[in-house]
Amino acid sequence: MSWPLSPPSVSFLYSFFCSIQLNMDNQEKTIDSSSQSEKDKESTTSPKATPRPPPILCLGAPRTGSASLMKALQILGYPNVHHGWEAAELEELQWQWPIFDRACDATFTNIPTYRGKPFSRAEWDEVFGEYDAVSDVASFFAESLIPAYPDAKVILVERDMEKWFPSMHAVVKSSTSPIRRKLGAKIGDLSGFLSPRPCNKLHQGWTRAPSPNDVIEYLKPAYVRHNKYIRDTVPKEQLLDFKLSDGWEPLCQFLGKEVPDVPFPHVNDSKEYAERGKRLGNKMIKLALRNLIFPCLRPEPITRP
């Protein structure tokens, strides 16, 4: 997400938020501990159920048309498709971000919080188990999701590098500025919209950058490596190497669906993405300020349904 703030306003807001002594790290640990406790309790008390089929893994990197593919899958009869924008924007999905944060720590060896134990299928099911398909933010975790769901169908969309890079640059640029990174995390914690902190880890982890400040330099090799890993790892019969310009036919053939009598969707271009980011950023800033000034109005953290 890109923050719609000029450098002076960023500095002012960061100083303002830092002047308030809030023990956000302890609160975060409490939330994670509570979530883990509930998970442990459920695992010992719930009867064993027949495993759901794995979700379709749409693992094209962000800004390769993931929102358009999500709409296409919904038209084809897969209504419940996970996308990072919905997870970032919807209050009722904020419980997912602490899980993504833990998944970063379990996946990316180059981030300081790496803990060395990969996420299991059961752990991924905690966040993705109810979805028909997953995309966008899920693609960052391709090297964890493919082993976790070895029988899943995988869709890889590759976009021309020269078009993809500037679009992805806009996504990660706020993660490369220390002050914007810290400000975003604080605003996320205060507003209750929790995507900034895990996204900082995602961008560094996926690119394998040695520090968050170096993410942009590592974008292009990360993109090439990501696409190669998927093509080299997924069995050919489970992989659709897809371009949005191919339209409905290869996608429908891969999924065993009839070709619908509607145009293939194309949504979320760079302009729309930027406007959406500004709306969400402004909403989070307003909520953070409200909750800072009037703590009694701050809602309880959203927990997993």
UniProtKB/TrEMBL annotation:
Signal peptide: none annotated. Gene3D superfamilies: P-loop containing nucleotide triphosphate hydrolases. It comes from the Eukaryota. It comes from Fusarium oxysporum f. sp. pisi HDV247. Residues 29-56 are annotated as: Disordered. InterPro entries: P-loop_NTPase (IPR027417), Sulfotransfer_4 (IPR040632). SUPFAM superfamilies: P-loop containing nucleoside triphosphate hydrolases. This is P-loop containing nucleoside triphosphate hydrolase protein. Residues 29-43 have a biased composition (Basic and acidic residues). Pfam families: Sulfotransfer_4 (PF17784).
